[in-house]
Design goal:
- The protein is of the alpha+beta class.
- Strands 16, 17, 18, 19, 20, 21, 22 and 23 form an eight-stranded mixed sheet that branches.
- Helix 1 crosses helix 12, helix 2 packs across helix 12 (333-370) and helix 2 (24-52) runs antiparallel to helix 21 (666-700).
- Strand 12 (277-278) and strand 13 (281-282) form a beta hairpin.
- The chain has four domains: 1-54 and 281-420, no CATH class; 64-271, no CATH class; 436-456 and 666-797, no CATH class; 469-663, no CATH class.
- The protein contains 25 helices and 25 strands.
Length: 797
């Protein structure tokens, strides 16, 4: 029995191989179509696996949580992972189910470190003493208990240890100078963070250093850092979340019925993919892109499989007699199904080989596009299991319909001549083409919408000119020497204006709950954004001043004054705002100016009330510089020269506002680029399927075409006859794709407070593109059929 089965499979393989060799053109098209679909699917699969693996390497992942705030005020709800600076220590003391808790502040901003004469910028943050007890970052030197257990201590990465001390072991117990203001003791060295860590940092400084340097972090009303907790093994997460919900009621005295803050918990390993909030709960985020492209991968693979079906059935006339002969010779239907599925599996095998080579070639480009560090996991058992599953599944799906269809043919009929196919089979085949083109047109529409939204973001009027605007973070003695810095820069070539600002101009996020104005209802709390700036801020930013004046040395009494935006003016309801009282935590003052609303954050968020306060003498922030158009190089040279004179121990570092603005939309750029590629790929593979169907139709109607030509039909008549039915299929596909794609893209655009409208021309353009490409594909085979010699097709009659 085993011998017979072996011979049977051997025979299937030989037949499959002979058919592939005998029909090189069909085989090449089949392999190419499947290879393209599998390549796309593998790239997306690797990307999806990388996305889903983010932060999953921590041993305690099931008990690690981040606390988030739900702020309810004036009928609105806002969420964020920010919490009061005192939260971690207090919540650990108060709630016994919490084993560890640590404050964490990480903003991807650089700090300057010095050992002897070596000065380097590194990226890092601040963390509580429990941090390394909770998270599985591998410590090379030191212990989880001692790494951050004392004030003025720091844990550094292997990279940072090697840069400064030569090795991790040499770094332990050594002092390192932090921002030229404090000496920190190295008490821990951890391995460089893996690529699937969402938060990248080369150093962590003891949490007490941050609390001691920022006074307002010691007040419960203000929030900024993250608070991470680890629950005890026997703790119930739902029970703990219920306990912490109203935790702040006992500490934040600003809580009222109309303004209150509740706390929630989210698993740490879920934050990366689920960082958006809806109705006060985590709901969506990057997971939506993961789901979207997972669906795209499946659909493109389906499109490729459908091509195989159409191309296989297009050859049915040539294979029908083979089926008849095999059945007459005693082959059962099961054996025939095995043969055709075997052919599909063999074709898929070659397609997978081609796809793996293509993935290896394309992966560096794909990584550059997505900002990943994905490698082809050739040594992974799970990867090869996936490939094997893909081979079996794709081979079965692609070969099942041709196998079932061809094996069902009546041997007597097929041996007499061309088999006739019933309406159901033809409709099914057309339905597959409609399915293909519906997906392709939907992808084209999605690509146009995403591309237009990205262009809108890039070219949107932000209310200030982001070009020729750069900022330099304060380091070392720059804050103390700011007046001299500004004076020197104002006389240097390429420099137009100089001011200072506490936050980068497109990352102003500081919130305050205690804004007051004359006539305000004392029972109402509001949230406003605030920023500290220096003299000439409005002029440097190129903001539109609607009323009043900028902070200026000409108005020394305005040091307690405020400039507000239009949204803040509407909040106060002042009719004549200049000179009207206003108070913030900074102090009581008066409104000295009103500026037109401008975007100081992502376009995903609406413009909120902004309070601009005077900060010429603050000890932190950035120098903001407007350069002369076309003189960027001269301006940077001037900046570097002056900064090195006034701050010689620190490397010169600067950031362009327009480049930092683009970084806010990295996800959109990636989605736009991937959508372009997938749309082109989908339409190309769909056209291969259409080619299969037109070849099938031409083959079925060979004698009809011959008779029409004998009766005087021209090539154009034949082409029109064969094309019109397929043109209908593409139009039907467009009508199906329009509502689906409109719903999907409208849902995606809801994430943006400022967005494009989905115009009617987008649908027409997508449909016309698909129709044009389809007609080119159809015409190629239709012209070939129309130019064929009718004598050859009729001589058997």
């Amino acid at each position: 029995m085993k011998h017979k089965l072996f011979n049977m499979f051997k025979n299937y393989f030989k037949s499959a191989w002979r058919n592939l060799i005998r029909n090189k053109t069909f085989s090449l098209i089949n392999i190419l179509g499947l290879a393209l679909g599998i390549t796309c699917s593998l790239l997306i699969l690797l990307w999806v696996q990388d996305e889903r693996s983010m932060d999953s390497f921590h041993k305690n992942t099931k008990s690690l949580y981040s606390i988030y705030e739900k702020v309810s005020y004036d009928g609105q709800v806002e969420n964020g992972y920010y919490t009061p600076g005192l939260m971690a220590d207090e919540i650990k003391k108060t709630i016994p189910e919490i084993q560890y808790a640590a404050g964490f502040d990480w903003t991807e901003q650089t700090a300057t470190f010095q050992v002897a004469e070596k000065i380097i910028h590194m990226v890092g943050g601040f963390a509580g003493a429990d941090f390394f007890k909770m998270f599985s970052y591998k410590l090379l030197e030191g212990t989880a208990e001692s790494a951050l257990d004392k004030p003025s201590t720091i844990a550094i990465s292997r990279r940072m240890a090697e840069n400064f001390f030569g090795s991790p072991a040499a770094a332990i117990g050594k002092a390192i100078r932090y921002d030229n203001r404090a000496n920190l003791l190295v008490t821990g060295v951890y391995e460089n963070l893996p690529s699937n860590a969402s938060e990248k940092f080369d150093f962590l400084i003891n949490w007490r250093v941050m609390l001691e340097s920022i006074d307002w972090l010691n007040q419960w009303i203000y929030s900024r850092p993250h608070t991470y907790i680890q629950l005890r093994p026997d703790a119930n997460p739902a029970f703990v979340e219920a306990k912490i919900k109203h935790f702040l009621d006992a500490y934040n005295k600003e809580q009222t019925k109309s303004f209150f803050i509740e706390l929630g918990m989210q698993r740490f390993d879920q934050i990366y993919l689920h960082s958006n909030f809806k109705n006060g709960k985590p709901a969506g985020g990057r997971i939506e892109y993961v789901q979207l492209f997972s669906a795209v991968a499946i659909f493109i693979l389906l499109i490729a499989c459908i091509n195989f079906m159409n191309l296989s059935t297009a050859r049915s006339a040539k294979r029908a007699k083979e089926v008849g002969v095999r059945k007459v010779s005693g082959a059962s239907r099961f054996m025939l199904i095995g043969q055709f599925v075997g052919e599909a599996v063999l074709t898929t095998f070659f397609a997978i080989v081609v796809a793996l080579i293509a993935v290896a070639i394309l992966l560096p480009m794909f990584n550059h596009l997505t900002g990943k560090q994905i490698v082809l996991p050739l040594s992974s058992f799970s990867f090869w299991s996936t490939i094997l599953g893909l081979l079996a599944l794709t081979g079965f799906v692609a070969g099942s319909y041709p196998a079932l269809f061809l094996s069902s043919l009546n041997p007597i009929i097929v041996l007499k001549g061309m088999p006739k196919f019933n309406t159901g089979i033809i409709l099914f085949r057309k339905g597959l083409v409609i399915f293909q083109f519906s997906l392709s047109i939907a992808l084209i529409i999605g690509t146009i919408v995403v591309s237009n939204q990205v262009k809108y973001i890039q070219s949107a009027n932000l209310g200030f000119n982001k070009e020729n605007l750069l900022y330099i973070p304060f380091e070392g003695d720059m804050a103390q020497n700011y007046s001299l810095l500004k004076q020197e820069l104002s006389q240097m070539p390429g420099i137009k204006n100089v001011t200072r600002i506490s936050n980068p101009p497109i990352q102003i996020t500081n919130q305050s709950y205690d804004l007051n104005w004359e006539g305000k209802n004392p029972n109402i709390k509001t949230i406003v954004i605030h920023v500290a700036v220096g003299y000439d801020f409005i002029k440097t930013m190129n903001l539109q001043l609607l009323q009043g004046h900028d902070f200026s040395k000409d108005y020394p009494a305005d040091s307690n004054g405020y400039i507000i935006n239009e949204t803040a003016l509407r909040l106060t309801s002042y009719k004549n705002p200049i000179g009207q009282p206003l108070s913030l935590f900074h102090g009581n003052g008066k409104i000295i100016g009103v500026v037109k609303d401008f975007h100081y954050n992502s376009l995903r968020q609406p413009i909120r009330p902004l309070i601009i306060r005077f900060g010429e003498n603050i000890s932190w922030g950035n120098t903001l510089v407007r350069t002369e158009p076309g003189k960027t190089k001269e301006a940077i040279a001037s900046l570097e020269k002056v900064c090195k004179q006034l701050n010689p121990k620190f490397p010169f570092t600067y950031f362009f506002s327009d480049e930092e603005y683009q970084k806010l939309y990295n996800n959109e750029e990636i989605v736009s680029s991937l959508s372009d590629s997938f749309a082109i790929l989908a339409i190309f593979i769909s056209c291969l399927g259409l080619l299969g169907l037109i070849m099938f139709t031409a083959e079925q109607r060979t004698k009809e075409i011959g008779i029409r030509k004998v009766l005087g039909a021209s090539v154009a008549n034949i082409v029109g006859m064969l094309s019109k039915d397929f043109l209908k299929l593409v139009i039907i596909s467009a009508l199906i794709a329009f509502p689906v794609s409109w719903w999907a893209m409208n849902t995606w655009l809801q994430e943006y407070a400022y967005r494009i409208d989905i115009s009617w021309w987008i649908f027409i353009a997508a449909a016309l593109s698909a129709i044009t490409i389809a007609m080119i594909t159809i015409s190629f085979q239709a012209i070939k059929a129309g130019m064929a010699n009718p004598v050859k097709s009729l001589r058997s009659e």
